[in-house]
Specification:
Elements: E1 3-10, H1 27-39, E2 46-47, E3 56-65, H2 72-78, E4 83-91, E5 103-111, E6 124-125, H3 132-140, E7 144-147, E8 161-172, E9 175-182, H4 189-202, H5 209-216, E10 231-237
Parallel strand pairs: 3-10, 5-6
Antiparallel strand pairs: 1-3, 1-4, 2-3, 5-9, 5-10, 7-8, 8-9
Length: 243
């Protein structure tokens, strides 16, 4: 049976995350309903990974198996307005959206200005002035392979080692964009890293505090889990160009 690969976008604010849940609106549930409506068959999908409640995606990747043909336009016609399929193609049967993935690229956006922009639906607002140089120094300490226990919200999963290929911040106008690319991420890891950056800035702590927190492996030392509104899964890489 042929395998299809999809690249999808979604606005996370009205979803209880990406992964299917009983009695909750999720991205996977809406996508599978649309596919089943279009094909008149029950379709099961595999996502590259889960995104949490409120988190957005610009480049989430999904696969499913189906014998017939599906047109991109027709699929988007039956999807709700907050989900769009931007690429659809048949792929090799060996391809697996989750298991074949080599890296995930997340971006967190912060509007750092005196006035909040009412058009910022996917940007976190933070009024107090942030120092981009200090933020980048703090981010430099999480690059490489580490135990990220201090930045995870759950102890259920024993796997805690992640490899971060890139962690950098840059600014466009009043918006600071924090790019983090890694082979994998723990539950709420990116949002906790950003929360820790804001804690370091707010309390005027040295950027090296990030390393101290990382090395401690203690969740209580890190900052809070920041709002999901500014977080977007930008891309999933299937060829590792970072090694």
């Amino acid at each position: 049976m042929p395998r299809y690969k999809l690249t999808i976008q979604y606005l996370g604010q009205d979803f209880k995350g990406s992964q299917k849940q009983l009695k909750e609106r999720t991205v996977q549930d809406e996508l599978e309903k649309a596919l089943s409506t279009l094909t008149q068959q029950k379709i099961s999908t595999i996502f590259s990974g889960r995104t949490d409640t409120g988190v957005n995606a610009k480049g989430q990747v999904v696969h499913f198996d189906y014998e017939g043909k599906i047109a991109l336009y027709n699929l988007n016609c039956v999807l709700p307005k907050d989900i769009r399929v931007v690429k659809l193609a048949k792929t090799n049967k060996k391809f697996h959206a989750q298991m074949s993935a080599k890296a995930r690229y997340y971006q967190y956006k912060i509007r750092n200005s005196e006035v909040e922009d009412i058009f910022d639906s996917c940007v976190y607002y933070y009024r107090h002035k942030l120092d981009l140089k200090r933020i980048n120094e703090a981010l430099s300490y999480i690059k490489g392979e580490h135990d990220f226990s201090a930045f995870r919200s759950s102890s259920d999963n024993p796997a805690r080692i992640c490899k971060i290929y890139k962690a950098e911040a840059h600014k466009t106008g009043d918006v600071i964009k924090i790019d983090i690319i890694g082979n994998r991420f723990l539950y709420n890891m990116v949002r906790t890293i950003v929360g820790t950056l804001l804690m370091i800035e707010k309390d005027n702590l040295p950027p090296a505090k990030m390393k101290e927190i990382l090395d401690s492996k203690k969740r209580e030392m890190a900052g809070s889990v920041i709002s999901p509104v500014g977080l977007t899964l930008m891309k999933v890489e299937y060829k590792n160009k970072y090694e």
